Amino acid sequence: MTDTVPRPDLTMDLVADGPLATIRLAGEIDLAAAPDLTAFGVLAASSAVVESIVIDMSDVSFIDCAGVGALVSVLHAARERSIDLRLHGIGPAVGRMLDLTGLKAMFGLPDLDGSHR
Questions:
Q1: pLDDT tens, residue order, the chain (117 aa)
Q2: What CATH number does the domain containing 20 carry?
Q3: Cα dihedral 84, 72, 60, 4 in deg (nearest 10)
Q4: Which listed residue, 55, 60, 106, 113, has the most CB atoms within 10 A of its CB?
Q5: Residue 116 maps to a domain
């Protein structure tokens, strides 16, 4: 299954290949885009065959608190279904926001010093 949702400032691609679903994001994740990201992630988590979701954020240039909230919502939806969720390609903008909100550990990401608290 492949699906794409173009938005003015964010493109979301979902590629599901058996037990792995990959969500590729490019652009800005803000208040306007957060509900679509949540819906897209919940859709990926609702597949009966998906065991792991990777959210590729290599091309994300901006994220605000609403965007972080959407990621947390997708994480909860995945955990409810015992699906592993990983963030990939965390750049400076996303990393800083996850640091500021204290959510790196929730996503299994190392702190700036390399530790997993």
A1: 555 555 578 999 999 899 999 999 999 999 999 999 999 999 999 999 999 999 999 999 999 999 999 999 999 999 999 999 999 999 998 999 999 999 999 999 886 555 555
A2: 3.30.750.24
A3: 70
A4: 55
A5: no
Is the C-alpha dihedral spanning 108, 100, 7, 35 positive or negative?
positive
- Total domains in the chain come to 1
Q: How far apart are CA 1 and CA 55, in angstroms?
A: 16
Structure tokens at 59: 């091309």
Please state the φ and ψ torsions of residue 101, each to the nearest 5 degrees. Answer: -90, -5
| Strand partners for 92 | none
* Residue that is written with structure tokens 């306007």 in the block: 32
Distance from C-alpha of 79 to C-alpha of 72, rounded to nearest angstrom: 10
- Whether 113 is in a domain gets the answer no
